[in-house]
Amino acid sequence: MPDNHSKLVVTATNRLLDYLGELPEVPCGMPAVAQLSEIAGVSRTTTLKLMELLVQKGIARLEGPHKIVLRRPVPGDYFSEAAGKSSKADQVERRILQKFSTAGLKPGERFSELELAREFAASTILVREVLQKIARSGFIRKHPHQKWEVIEFTTGLLEEIISARRLYETHALRTIRLLPENERVRTDWALLQTQIRRRLKRKRLAAADVCEMEYALYSRLAGAARNRFLEASYRSLLKLTTGYLRQDDGNEAGLENELTRFHTLVQALLNRDFETVAQVMEEHLQATLTRLKNDRR
Prior knowledge:
Layout: H1 7-21, E1 28-29, H2 33-40, H3 44-56, E2 60-63, E3 66-69, H4 88-101, E4 110-111, H5 113-120, H6 124-135, E5 140-142, E6 148-150, H7 155-178, H8 183-200, H9 207-224, H10 228-242, H11 252-270, H12 274-295
Antiparallel strand pairs: 1-3, 2-3, 4-6, 5-6
Helix pairs in contact: 2-3, 4-6, 4-10, 5-6, 7-9, 7-10, 7-12, 8-9, 8-11, 9-10, 9-11, 11-12
């Protein structure tokens, strides 16, 4: 699939592909647009556009007023989690945080707004705004009339980062506990669980697969808190700490353990077993802290 679609289309298409992949038999008739719209979480108008994409890929065929599913999706039919148009500021923020998590910018290292602007083909004003946003999370600092500096990732700072994540995630979980049963939310969690299962079935796991699932899972958790101010800060923490797994690209057993933990967490959410959810979330935070410490040695 081309990657010049909006994030909404990217996410909705992947949801539909997951649904079609679970159909008991193909070829078969396509469900009604209203049902597909509910599954994808988008309007009927957008759903019709998604149908056109499915036809282009040869997954479905139109026969007059009828729509036929010809085959199940394959991995190449999916958008990557990183696909989809995003703002230039989002792109720059993601790339800067990635430089932190992959040691492209090391603790104690200094850099200028102009250097990053040239590297990312962005304006210095935009880069400055992004850096000021990241600085609120405590990862970088700037002295007057000097370059920016990456904060030394001491054990204390790493523990503070994990503590901040724990606060946000505990607040989000408390909010989820109070929400009534919602079929659309359940469908969303179930589709995410299907994505995790598909990755667990792959012959070879990549760290990027696990990072994508971690970000998708914990972004949904943070979104449940419905607090835009907390969510903005949390996502910066999440983007930084999800990168720790990239160092484990060759550790198949470790990556599988992380995915299995995410699968358990989602199943507990579906069962509204919040004690298990809290336990698994804490296990994940402790594993994240251990890896972060190891990566900084």
